[in-house]
Amino acid sequence: MRNQKKYLFILFIAFLSIFFFNTNSCVQTSVTKTKIINGYNFTDTQGNVINAHGGGFLKVGKYYYWIGENRKNGVFVSCYRSKDLLNWEFRGDLLTRQSHPELDKANIERPKVIYNEKTKQFVMWMHYEYGKDYSYARAAVATSPDIEKPFTFLKSFRPFNNMSRDCNLYKDEDGTAYFFSAARENYDMIMYKLTVDYLDVKEQIATLWPGGHREAPALAKRGNYYFIITSACTGWAPNQAKYAYAKSITGPWSELKNIGNATTYDSQSTYILPVAGKEITNYLYVGDRWDSKNYSNSRYIFLPLKFQNDTTMELNWVDKIIPDVQTGKLE
Ligand code: GAL
């Protein structure tokens, strides 16, 4: 009798643990996010940590795409999509070590994707290294007709023979695309105009703040002004971000001005994400909070950019943010 009771009790406990384990795992995978909490691990709709560091964003139809660095299991670039900028669905790996022989010992950083209407191709530019260090200092290009499918790696090269490390793309309203990249051992930020197919550099347009040692460029246009945020050059360690503005993207660009605090709230810029709603267009600063010891533990920071007038930009810390993609408001 005693044994039977014991047996029933064990059965009851086993049943309870199975019930709670399942409910719990259910909550883990199907929870709908209602806000971005800054500085914490950001998970996708499967409950897995999002690996899209040094990333960029692109709106295609009703989806925002988030494409960035993934350094796990031979993957270089991963793709996520979301309708609300809160709940991100993993859609696949766009570039891996196996994608091309030139990638076998490569290191890929800061991939950015834009769409070319004329060729109907998504075009990715990125920072390409080969082997253990950063001495290759090249740009690389890959394309795909489908943003969610693996990209074809085309080439790596030095634009007009310049070194090329931290970089970003900017597609202007008229369809002209520009590539910004840190050259001359990161002393110079060079701006290039791309060819009509976006597969090459057509013209070296300007060196912004020669000798200024700026990295991590991120651009946006608000009203009649272009803005660029850059970081200083301190590896994985955060530093003071600065911004500049210009009426024409080809310059002249203003002097650099501080934005955010001395460590940019422990982050480094990667993108300025416009949230264009029916009522207003707001802009989110997207930064990486790097973990130099455990790269995959690096976090993301989404902060609202504030504008007091046409040419000033402010960045303040918020613990959480709720973007409303319908109205464009940020709460
Ligand atoms: C940072 C750069 C990162 C990565 C890192 C390596 O300055 O922005 O993309 O290259 O250096 O130390």
Structural overview:
With 331 residues, the protein is mainly beta. Helix content is 9%, strand content 45%. The structure holds beta-D-galactopyranose. Beta-D-galactopyranose binds next to strand 6 and strand 14.
Compute the separation of the termini in Å: 62 Å
- Biggest β-sheet description: 4 strands, antiparallel
Nearest-integer average pLDDT: 93
Task: Tell me the series of helices and strands, N- to C-terminal.
Answer: HEEEEEEEEEEEEEEEEEEEEEE
Low-pLDDT stretches are: 18-28
Oligomer: single chain
How many β strands by DSSP? 22
What Rg do the Cα atoms give? 22 Å
Q: What keywords describe this structure?
A:
four-stranded antiparallel beta sheet; globular; 331 residues; binds beta-D-galactopyranose; mainly beta
Question: What's the short story on this structure?
Answer:
Helix content is 9%, strand content 45%.
Fold topology:
Blueprint: H1 2-30, E1 36-37, E2 53-60, E3 63-69, E4 75-82, E5 89-96, E6 106-116, E7 121-130, E8 138-144, E9 152-157, E10 167-171, E11 177-183, E12 188-194, E13 201-208, E14 215-222, E15 225-231, E16 241-246, E17 257-259, E18 268-276, E19 281-289, E20 299-306, E21 314-315, E22 320-321
Antiparallel strand pairs: 1-22, 2-3, 3-4, 4-5, 6-7, 7-8, 8-9, 10-11, 11-12, 12-13, 14-15, 15-16, 16-17, 18-19, 19-20, 20-21
